[in-house]
Amino acid sequence: MSIVKLQSLRKPLITLSGAAVIAAAAAVLLMVSATLGTVRAQSAGDLNDLEIAHVAYTADLIDIRYAHLALSKSKNPAVHAFAQTMIRDHSAVNDKALALLKMLNASAQDNFLSRQLNAQADQLVDVMSHLHGEEFDRRYAANELAYHKAVNGLVGGTFIPNIQNPEVKALFEQALVIFKVHEKHAAKMVASLKKVASLGR
Questions:
Q1: Which of 45, 117, 126, 146 has its CA 20 to 30 A from that of 136?
Q2: Would residue 21 count as lying in a domain?
Q3: DSSP 8-state class, residue 165
């Protein structure tokens, strides 16, 4: 499929414990939801396949960025294991996406949502960079849970139904299965860190 043909498919492509952890996750979710609210206002359903691909690639890079921060800041083995999984899986998905775009002779297209996600990530990295120890671990875990919930909802509820190219759609469907596992893993990490914090009181 040529880039011209593909482009013609215009429809879419925290010291924290207890209630504080929930508040942190809620804050992240609200921040992402605010972005997604802007997305709806600017018609996410009108993003073409190449724009959707760019958003997904950007979202993967952002989570890889969070993971590298976790590896440099945390001393918790479970947090390290999760972060390493994020780097491995999101890098693999992005490699597949780049290979598919190359096969299609196409390039992902930058767009307002990709730029908003990057700006939001810059702010969050700045906040988390000033946290240490268990405080960092709980904020990272809460963010990962909220981030995956928000992004998975966008991918499954908006992007996949609107992607026109069958190969691009198939890649997104495969990736969503992996990312839903990430969401469950993040939820377990949040619960585990919350339990450790409660025992430490």
A1: 117
A2: no
A3: S
Which amino acid type is present at position 29?
A: L
d(CA 41, CA 73): 37
- CATH number for 144: 1.20.1260.10
Domain assignment present for 34: no
Which ranges of the chain have pLDDT less than 70?
A: 1-41, 43, 197-201
Tell me if 154 sits within 8 A of 36, measured CB to CB: yes
Domain of residue 57, residue span: 51-199
- State the helix-helix crossing angle for 166-199 and 19-41, rounded to 10 degrees: 160
Summarised one tens digit per residue, pLDDT across range 12-42 is 333 344 444 444 554 555 555 445 554 444 7
Count of domains observed in the chain: 1
Percent of the chain with pLDDT over 70: 77
39: which residues sit within 8 A by CB, 6+ positions away? 113, 116, 154
Q: Which two tokens stand for residue 201?
A: 């009181």
> CB–CB of 10/50 below 8 Å?
no
CA angle (35, 39, 43) in 5-degree steps: 175
Question: Please, are residues 2 and 35 in contact by the beta-carbon 8 Å criterion?
Answer: no
